[in-house]
Amino acid sequence: MATDTHRAIETVWRIEAPRLIAGLTRLVRDVGVAEELAQDALVAALEQWPADGVPDNPGAWLMTTARRRAVDRIRRDTTYQRKLAEIGRDIDEAVPDVAETDGIGDDLLRLVFVACHPVLSREARAALTLRLLGSLTTDEIARAFLVPEPTVAQRIVRAKKTLAKARVPFEVPQGAELAARLSSVLEVVYLIFNEGYSATAGDDWMRPELCAEALRLGRVLARLTPREPEVHGLVALMEIQASRAAARTGPNGEPILLADQNRARWDRLLIGRGLAALARAEALVDGRPGPYVLQALIAAGHARARRFEDTDWVRIAALYERLAETMPSPVVELNRAVALSMAYGPATGLALLDQLTAVASLQGYHLLPSVRGDLLARLGRHAEARAEFERAASLTRNERDRTLLRDRAAAMTDPGPHAEAGDGKR
User: What is the pLDDT of residue 407?
Assistant: First the structure.
């Protein structure tokens, strides 16, 4: 029973932590303090729920507990009266919703913009937002960025201190400041989506709540900035990727790769929404499309193909070439290699892939040997492919991925022409 309760607490925490931290940041105006208060509430749940049972509304229980801790903290503070005036309410009364002044009415979106404030480095913005809104561990964030875990931990600690020192307001910026901070916000929202779409670690291949949260934030951003093509491009990309969710896993949660997915299970409503968002983005593009519009075009190419065999890989390879010019990245090149292999044969893709084996940031990235194993298998070089799949299995932290890769290694007596990627997603 205690084990079941602890699992329930873990699930609730994954879902509720971002909203909890956002609401507390609105209250105390300090993301570091807000996270500490949220953690205090989690500890209280771990102490009380095994004995009392999980409450009917666990999110509200956590918020109430955290707010009480916040009230106690403010009372103990020597600047109690000043903080009381800033918060603008009587701490002895129930905490009401704060009147909205920026037209968004979304604490989570405010928290994204706070975490993406220009006083922080680009890397710190993304890491902090993933920590606060994605509830990711420092290890998961490190693997998402392909950097050491201590580096991420230091970035997060320094970011909180910097924001507190700068007294960054808890609000959505306006005008020129909004435009300046938008690109980092889009990056962070997509990173959150990616972690939900292909979980870095754990027993589940997907974390749907993160995909849903990223999509919700993206849609709010699109309403906030209706003339920004990259915002609509990101929304289009996420809608189309999310449409595959039901087809990406089997009955027991096992991964199903793109080539093997039953496309009848793809969500046509989400695809329609994604294509509509892409059309809005293309109508707004002035000159060359940005990276999110290009990635949405790639995703749309897959969505429009009724069968895997119908995919226009030549067009997708060309789009990846444009994406590589717009946003140079080893990961983009990795996916371009897959697209080239599908358009012009595995030897062509392998030639590009072999150039990436020396890239330092990809050394611990399991998809590099995974994709290389796939191309070697398609060339009939099964012994080499087996070694690559085994190496990929040793690098991944996701149990579902590890099982899939070990199975592929064991199956190397059969050719099995399965594409490992092609649009950055499976």
Answer: 94
Which of 327, 339, 323, 236 shows the shortest CA–CA distance to 282? 236
Say what the pLDDT of residue 290 is: 95
Long-range contact pairs involving 331-336 (C-beta distance under 8 Å, separation at least 24): 331/362, 331/365, 331/424, 332/424, 334/362, 334/367, 334/368, 334/371, 334/421, 335/421, 335/422, 335/423, 335/424
**CA angle in degrees (0–180, nearest 5) for 29-31-33:** 85
- Do residues 320 and 339 lie in contact, with contact meaning Cβ atoms separated by under 8 Å? yes
With beta carbons less than 8 A apart as the criterion, state whether 189 and 217 touch.
yes
- pLDDT at position 88, please? 54
Tell me how far apart the alpha carbons of residues 72 and 214 are, in angstroms, rounded to a whole number: 33
Per CATH, the number for 320-426 is 1.25.40.10
Question: Mean pLDDT in runs of 10 for the chain (426 residues)?
Answer: 72 79 83 83 83 83 86 68 56 39 61 87 85 81 80 94 90 81 87 85 78 88 90 98 94 90 97 98 93 98 96 98 95 96 97 92 93 96 96 92 94 60 54
Query: What residues are paired with 397 via a beta bridge?
Result: 201
Q: Residue 255 gets which letter from DSSP? A: B
3-state secondary structure labels for all residues of 183-244: HHHHHHHHHHHHHHHCCCEECCCCCHHHHHHHHHHHHHHHHHCCCCHHHHHHHHHHHHHHCC
For residue 50, how many C-alpha atoms fall within 13 Å in the half-sphere facing its CB? 12
The C-alpha atoms of residue 303 and residue 255 are separated, in whole angstroms, by 19
Place of tokens 């918060």: 87
